[in-house]
Fold these 2 entries.
Entry 1:
Amino acid sequence: MDKQSVPQDQVATYEGLRKLMYAVDENGNYVRVTSSGWEAESFSTELAVAEMIRQRDAAWQRAREGRASPLEYHMYRNRMDFDTLVMTTGLWRWRVKRHFKPTIFAKLNDNVLTRYAAAMGISVDSLKQLPSSP
Amino acid sequence: MTAFQHRQAAHCESGVTSALITHAGLPLSEPMAFGLGSALAFAYIPIVKLAGMPLISYRMWPGAIFKAMPKRIGVQMYMQKFSSPQAGADALDVAIDKGQVVGLQTCIYWLPYVPDQFRFHFNAHNIMVYGREGNDYLVSDPVFEMSTRCPREALTKARFAKGALQAKGLMYYPTQVPKDIDYKSVIPTAIRANYRNMMQPIFPMIGIKGIRYLGKQIIKLEKHKDRERYLPLYLTHIIRMQEEVGSGGAGFRFVYASFLQEAGQLLNNETLLKASKDLTDAGDEWRRFALRATKMVRGREEMNLRALSDVLNGVADKEAAVWGQLKNFAI
């Protein structure tokens, strides 16, 4: 990549951050150049974030209707997926899956709830609750 | 010992390792740390999923650079994991108070200075701590332009986050560095090891074959049952892994090309200089792939998975030619 081709698209998601890239100058030598981001990349990031928000909102809706426990909502809310939640809590997969059911989640003891809360960095109280909007 | 200088890098692990070794008295550029770590790779592993997407990596597993590379150049690294967060935090304080600059493996999600859009549960983000003031650690995170600060609790949380690739508080720093590096011997060794990553993989989903395999998988998406939703996410996932902050762009190809150039100049070797140029071309081709795929996802060009697959095969041809030149590289 030529030095002049290093994208400078002032990507909003970077929050002012500029990343370092290696590019070739007019003499063919590699030099260090900072980039304010590339549109193709930021589009991809935004799409992934939008998908996470979609999953989060769907989980919120399910919890609202009593079809799922707040656990699933909080999982997405904290940018986790099922595998991440399983691995960060160290619980069995089938147990985590069961805890998505409202009746079973309601009966959980503080010990298990604390593990979820700690993995997500939230309090046990907020874990038990569903906020009024996603 | 001289004051620590923050220096921005393209990639966290090579940035941290080169900074630590340079600070210890042996100047080492980031591309050189990356190249001597034989860190360039390609892997497409569909059975391992990240947020529902197959694992795609353009470099070797974490550790190739901070663990294997120092050994190769004769640098002794102290490395320690901890069973409890308290022990990890205490050991960090002891090392810092002795004036040591310490490399740490962390989960990027828990680092409060990181912009929101980069906060994913990724456990192998490397940073350095070079001091502390009150409740804050002085942090040098090489993918950022400036050094920063991180509160004690947040850093401990980031070091001891659980999950895939968990750090267990890993801290590391060089304890002994040689006066100089025997480039004539280590550069060919590192390049030959990297040749094996790319050309003689254990599985066909790795190296040049892996790039072609990804191309084949893309065509199969034509018939995916949830195509409308899945296809855009899948294609942009490839692009994110390739272009995101910390990859140096084009999936580390420019970093490695810069290494080949530096090595070629050091050894006065035409083969390496030529290979550097050709790998730069391959990197440009990766970026054309990213551009074209985003155009298709946005509907500015008709979706044509076979065309995208062809671009990837073109990339694979270019990279295979580079490694063909470097086969049995010796001086």
Note: Chain A touches chain B at residues 1, 13-15, 17-24, 28-30, 32, 34-35, 38-41, 43-45, 47-49, 51-52, 79-81, 83-84, 87-90, 119, 121 (CB under 8 Å).
Entry 2:
Amino acid sequence: MSSVLFFIAAIGALAGAVGVVTLRNPFYCVLALVIHLIALALLFLLLRSEFVAAVQVVVYAGAVMVLYVFVVAYVGGDGESIGERLRGAGAGPSAGGLRLGGAILAAAVGIELLIALLGTGLAGVGGHGAGYVPGPQAYGTPAYIGKLLLTRFLLAFEVASFLLLIGAVGAVVLARRRGGLEDADGQPITPLELLRPRGTGTTAESVGRHLG
Amino acid sequence: MSTTTYGWLVLAFPLAGMLATGLGFRVLPGRSAGWLGTLAIFLSFLAAIGALLSLQHHGPEHRQLVSSLWNYASTAGIDAQLSILVDPLSVFMILTVTGVSTLIHLYSISYMEGDEGFVRYFSYLNFFVFSMLLLVLAGNFLLLIVGWAFVGAASYLLISFWYRRTTATRAGIKAFVINVVGDVGLVLGTYFIFKHTHTLDLLRSFHAAGAGAFGHGSNAAATGDGDLTAGCILLLVGAFAKSAQIPLHTWLPDAMEGPTPVSSLIHAATMVTAGVYLIARMHPLFELAPAARDVGAIVGALTLFVAGTIGLAQTDIKRVIAYSTMSQIGYMIMGVSVGAYAAGLFHLMTHAFFKALLFMAAGSIIGAMGGEQSLNRMGGFRRAMPFTYGCFIIGGLALSGIPPFSGFFSKDEILLVTGEEGGWHWALYVIGYIGAFLTAIYTFRMIFRAFHGEPVPEARELEAGHLHHAEHPSNPATGELEDTGVGFPGPIHAIAERALPMRIAMGLLALGAVGAGLVQIPKVDFVIDDFLRPSFAGSKLYEPHTKNGLLAFGLILGTVIGLAGIALAYRVWVARPGTAESIRNRVRPLYELFVNKWYFDELIDALVVRPVALAGDFARDVFERRVIDETIVGGTTGIVRAGSAAVRAVQSGFVRYYAALLLVGVAGTGFYFLLQS
Amino acid sequence: MSIGWYLAVSAIVFSLGAFGVITRRNPLVLLLCLELMLNGGNLALIAFSRMWGNGDGQILALIVMTVAACEVCIGLGMIVAIHRRRLPVDVDELRELQG
């Protein structure tokens, strides 16, 4: 039973991956990735990591992909395939060459990875994993994860939350409209300017650029 | 006070004078700088007399005293001390130098009046006297070289004193460069000598040489070691450059661009005699290297002849006297090279008197001409300037060697000793007398042309009581217009008849020119000989061994030649005025040769100056530009630029490119590790 | 299935993502392919975690997901800003950072 499920999930994941890479329309690519993510969640479940699977669906496929959908709807981008010729004179490598080169490169990386992963001398790779003891705090349960997060991986946990904060701030800064904080001549004011007011004599000022 | 303390005082006073005038040049009013400078040298002269008197208190064997201020450096076998040597030779020299210098300073107070650079002049002049005294008082090779170099520097400063005149600055550079050639010779010569004696101290060096440091016995007839001869010839190169002997003589006539007192002091009485002093001081070394002595004698004789012939054709009054100096120094060099030390030095002293006198008188007549120096424009000043005329006559008679003037005794003694050497020295003897004949001719040619004949307008003006002034001051050599500001001569021209300091100075020198010969009349008194003997103890050539017959012959011949020269000059330039013109036309090629100074300037230009200039051009255009700038520097930067351009191409800006590169790296690394395992 | 199968899937997904990153021109799709690669890594982590039996791999996978979320935020914010400035949304056109 688990093998069947495994194959369904694996084929779904691969199909989604291929779809992301090859589909023309960015919307379809997003959808393909959603399929891929859900298939991956199934694979996680087969590996008894129920919490991670849930997070994958809820956060990744749920929140991040929705964000993607919004942006793709807004920005759109031209649907183009990998075979389209590149515009602009003197632009980068030709499409055909890139496709071939990229394929070779990716294949090389893939083969190496397969050899490395499957050819390793680790005995457990051929097995079905360490033993599983069901229980309230068994392997893969939220309690289990939670306990680990707050004991052994506390630092990582805190750093990750800090990272999220920075990410949020960065996103706001990036996407804000012009016409936010401005000074008298219409030049936007940056936080740096609040620390170093005009006329303190920086090099940027001397070449005619205001701070920030 | 001990003798050597007097020696240090002799050095200290001019140094103090130089510093006082130099540092106080803004605050010293009027002519006080001149009096200050003169006072400094006069005090030095008094100290020299003190040194003389206290030296005579010592017994004759103990009259070579060395005093050292401090040890300057003692390393690697070199003992460099600041030491002076006070012995009869140096006392003789410092008396001459300070005595004549005092009178020249006095003369300059009037001569340089009104010049914007008055204070600077006296500072330089004091510096010069200090350097010259340092040179003659030096107790080791180091201070000798230092004094030598300072004297050259002072000469440059004073020749190009009127520095806004291009001719003056060029002359200063020429003098300095030729002097540097001499400096190189001096230093190399010192090295060759040091190599064997292992000491820089003069007395110890001589002692070592006598004890056989140069690899042979102390037999005077033995031939010298190669190094010693080379060293002595290099010292001679230094002497020739300083004393303006052929072929390093071309700077002296150009050096007449300096003010006349400068010519009188430096280029007549003191600096140019440094070479003579050097040979006399180094006599123990020279006596062991007869080849070097022969070189000196021949060059001296050659110079005295060539300079004499050139003097016949020159028209600038100062240049005539300059060539006369060159000729007389030739006598002195010849004298000390053949061993007539006392005679040569005696001639140095008398020559200082009458040559300084002649230059001073020339300065006076130039003042009367308003700055003009050409004999072609002068004439008939006899009635207008009797005092100057008298000084010229006295100086001229002394120079021509007419008894009882001083030049007669000194010059003939040199020729006597030369003749006594025998062998090929007879040729030098003959050349010496020919030179004396030429001397008499050109000297009195100058006097007759300037003072006899029809008075020129400037002379008539002066007879009427008005000193001539040119409306627009100009360069006497090229005629370029100038002004009288700083860097050019001042507006006031002084003449002896009106300026008391000039008259005093010239009068005292005239007395010296007349009476100095009396201290060394052959067979009668030997003041100079006796005085200098302790310095030359150990010399095989010092003792005069005069044959009476040759002595009498020489004295009579000298007198006759001198008088004949004067008579000839009188006939050509006074009695029959057109004679000079016709002689010139008959021997035109010879005349051209003399007027062009035997083409030495052109020769040196072609042999030395052009090749060096070409080498410099080559270095600049080919070597500097092509090799260094383009190949080495440009090549290096080019390689760096090309390399960085190649590396820069990787930063194409395409994100996909970067991603691909990243993946290449990953694949490569993975591959490597797979191979490893 | 033994752990090896999961690892194989992970490797293939990763290389497919790499291929996509190199090849696609639309920056949005490029970021999607980047997500693919991250997911491939996640799968490997979970598989190994199952193999060893401790939860380290799961925690790491969670952290990876966090990082991916942040990165997507920033990336999409940049693309929105580019779009708003009327620049072409095309990685080959956006190449001013060059040497």
Note: DSSP finds three helices and no strands in chain C.
